[in-house]
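User: What would this chain look like folded?
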Amino acid sequence: MMRAIHHVDLWVSDVDTAAEEWAWLFGELEWEADDQHRSWCHPDGTYAFLEHSAD
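Assistant: Here's the prediction, encoded as structure tokens.
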């Protein structure tokens, strides 16, 4: 199977707040969260990360 996207970086100013705000969506889409709920992995291997950025 070929994936169209390998990963997505979501740049946010407050990682803790963003993790709470994004968790429900990834959960509904059946993505698995890591232990800190700062990244999620789809069953096909695609993953998303929350990254901190002051901008």
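The beta strands are 7-12, 32-33, 39-41, 47-52. If you want, I can go into more detail on any region.
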